[in-house]
Amino acid sequence: MTAETVIEAPAELEEGFDRRAEQMRLVEAVLFASAEPVEEAALAARLGEGADLRGILDELQAHYSHRGVHLVAAAGRWAFRTAPDLAPLLQRETEVTSRLSRAAVETLSIIAYHQPVTRAEIESIRGVATSKGTLDILMEAGWIKPGRRRETPGRPLTWLTTPAFLDHFGLESLRDLPGVDDLRAAGLLDARPAITTLFSRGDDAALPRAVEDSAED
Amino acid sequence: MTAETVIEAPAELEEGFDRRAEQMRLVEAVLFASAEPVEEAALAARLGEGADLRGILDELQAHYSHRGVHLVAAAGRWAFRTAPDLAPLLQRETEVTSRLSRAAVETLSIIAYHQPVTRAEIESIRGVATSKGTLDILMEAGWIKPGRRRETPGRPLTWLTTPAFLDHFGLESLRDLPGVDDLRAAGLLDARPAITTLFSRGDDAALPRAVEDSAED
Amino acid sequence: MADARGPDDEWSAAPALEPAAEGEPALLVDLGEFEGPIDLLLTLARDQKVDLTRISILALAEQYLAFVEEARRLRLEVAADYLVTAAWLAYLKSRLLLPTPETEEPTGEELAQALAFQLQRLEAMQNAAARLMARPRLGRDIFPRGAPEDLPVFERRVTEVTLYDLLRAYGDIKRRQQKTGPLHLPPVDLFTIEDAIRRVEAMLGRLPDWTRLDRFLPPDWRGGGTSREDKLKARSALAATFVATLELAKAGQLEVRQDGTFGPLYVRRTDTPAAPPIPDKEP
Q1: Strands (DSSP E) along chain C, which ranges?
Q2: Who's near B101: CB < 8 A, 6+ residues apart?
Q3: Looking at the complex, does the CB of residue A75 fall below 8 Å from at least one CB of chain C?
Q4: Which of A178, C92, C134, C248 sits most deeply, having the most CB atoms within 10 A of its CB?
Q5: How many CB atoms are closer than 10 A to CB B69?
Q6: How far is A129 from chain B (nearest CA, A)?
Q7: How far is CA C227 from CA B199, C67, C222, in A?
Q8: Which residues make Cβ contacts (< 8 Å) with residue B80, sequence separation at least 6?
Q9: ipTM over the 0.85 cut-off
Q10: Whether residue C199 sits in one domain with residue C123
Q11: The organism sits in which domain of life (chain C) (predicted)?
Q12: Has residue C164 been placed in a domain?
């Protein structure tokens, strides 16, 4: 009697262990097979009810953390990517990395750090009008998308970054943007208008009277 | 003296071990990222003289033999492949991705912007007849649905977008679709080969205001 | 003057105020490398080599005004943005130096603070951009699965259409609509005679003496590029400016001279005090 119970327990444990191992292999295969990040929800649907997806992902991530390929997350999507430290050995130039204009790069980071942000706000921060092609290029790259309209006069469109932006720059979430906490603490991400009205040429730019007068001198 | 040799030996060993581990990581990353199976000779060239490529490949193959992904060789070329025994699980659902025809994308955008809109109205906006198949495809994708009939002669059916449409395009509401002005500002109304886009100015266009204004009239 | 700057300085471009060779003007001014007036101000501020929070806004305003003045003296044209900012800074300077009038307008101190904030915020964004672009990037440093296996789609995505595709399609429709209906000429980005007249009139006041016609062309329109479009633009600017000078000559505002067939055209204000003739051949 006692002997039986002793034997049964490990058998059950082993079965549970096997199922979990199989689930891990499945997750590994699904993520490995896909070039695009896979939604966590889609993985959960694969495994069915009651699976410890989070635990499996954590374990996989730990397993791969010292290997040539890493398991990374961006905006709730998971993907295998080559390890960043191997970059010098793997580096290649492609059209993806072709030089973005300085205007495009600045605009992209302003959208990333200040989102949701309107075009007029971008222009106020940069101090120049945004040329037409800039947002177009960033949107075509799949890095930005329109967000909700701002409930202010004119209901201007806001802009946001996409999950593909996070994926491209190897960020798990917007909280991982370089230096974002310091910038916020320093008040540099505040919506506070600076000399906005002076430098934006947007429709909603109303020059203060004094400036207008002196500009016309 | 003896102490020194004792200390030196492990240090060397460790260094050799580290180099080998790094080489293994590189092989792993190269095989992962490569679009084609990789020639053993190409891998050897990557690692440089004196590397134990064969040993590394054997070790990798053994490591992956119980995982969701296998390292396989055919005709002297190496590649990662999902484990064959997982095939039934991976291919359980088969859905085919297809690109939407240009007519379908245009029709969808018109429904999004003009809903509720009848087929005749869509045709008048696009300037060409819409095949019944186009609406079927969009309906099958779950992006459009029939709305109320228009109370005009013939009581034509109108079309609306669905919540799945918003979901797919990452929009919170229809109000967040960029307006025509936004599209123009983002450069999306520009004909690609047209002269204006070829001339797109930098943000710092050193032109007096008057010139710019009249050029945009 | 050769560009003494390395390619790495893109993010910390020093102002192009450099001592020139003997006999040359003391300053080399090029606004082309700045992303607008705030960027120029920031570059000048960095040169003060102190923390941006401790910068002297007054000194900065003076530096900017001197810079723009020099730019105008040498190159004769400065984008409107820069001039508006110059006017604003002149105003700021006066507010900082003169006793505060009893008005509801912001004080000089408040204006200076707003400008300082603007500079810090742009600097923060430029630094953030540099750090962002320095990260390992997908497709250059980090790679996805190179040979994705044809597995079923997990996102219930039937078709591959992006929001960009959708918006681009709608933009195309809108554009086609503009083409049909009443005749609608696509905007052609060429220099008009009206533009040229305004430009020549505005510049005449600052002309020292006989000036070559092509000096009146905006820098972007001088056909520096080799593309067909650049040449077309340059031709339109030259033709418009030529017609503009004829119009203004007819109105008695300026004189035009040419020293020989196909020779360069020179222009000056009619009320220019007599100056020695250009050392070319006699008319």
Answers
A1: 211-212, 254-258, 265-269
A2: B134, B137
A3: no
A4: C92
A5: 21
A6: 6
A7: 11, 32, 12
A8: A32, B31, B32, B64, B69, B70, B71, B72, C147
A9: no
A10: no
A11: Bacteria
A12: no
Joined tokens for residue B21: 């581990």
Q: Does residue C53 lie within any of the structural domains?
A: yes
- Give B56-75 pLDDT, tens digit per residue: 999 999 999 999 999 988 87
C141-157: pLDDT as tens digits:
888 888 777 654 444 44
Residues from B in contact with A at Cβ < 8 Å? 24-30, 32-33, 46, 67-69, 80, 82-83, 86, 89-90, 170-173, 175-179, 182, 184-188, 190, 197, 200-205
CB C136, CB A170: distance < 8 Å? yes
Residue A145 pLDDT class (50, 70, 90 cuts): very high
User: Degrees (nearest 5) of the Cα angle C149, C155, C159?
Assistant: 85
**Given an 8 Å threshold on Cβ–Cβ distance, is B80 in contact with A32?**
yes
Contact list in A for residue B35 (CB cut-off 8 A) is none
- B198 at the C interface (CB within 8 A)? yes
Can you give the residue range of the structural domain that contains C85?
37-134
B193 near A146, Cβ under 8 Å? no
Q: Is residue C92 situated within a structural domain?
A: yes
Residue C175 near residue C168 (C-beta atoms within 8 A) = no
- Exposure b/e, B2-11, CB count within 10 A at least 16 = b: eeeeeeeeee
The burial class, CB within 10 Å (0-12 / 13-18 / 19+), for B20 is middle
Q: What's the Rg (C-alpha) of chain C? A: 26
pTM over 0.90, yes/no: no
- What tokens does B13 get? 């060993």
For chain C, percent of residues with pLDDT exceeding 70:
70
- Please give the Cα distance from A58 to A63 (Å, whole number): 9
Confidence of residue B212 (pLDDT cuts 50, 70, 90): very low
Question: Which residue, C114, C134, C154, sits at the end of a domain?
Answer: C134
- Which long-range contacts (C-beta less than 8 Å, at least 24 apart) are formed by B6-11? none
Q: At what angle do helices B53-64 and B40-47 cross, to 10 degrees?
A: 110
Q: Which domain CATH number covers C261?
A: 1.10.10.580
**Which range scores top for mean pLDDT: A17-26, A90-99, A198-207, C172-181?**
A17-26
Say yes or no for a CB contact (<8 Å) between C125 and A109.
yes
Shared domain for C125 and C198, answered yes or no, is no
Position C28 in a domain: no
From C116, C134, C152, give the residue that closes a domain. Answer: C134
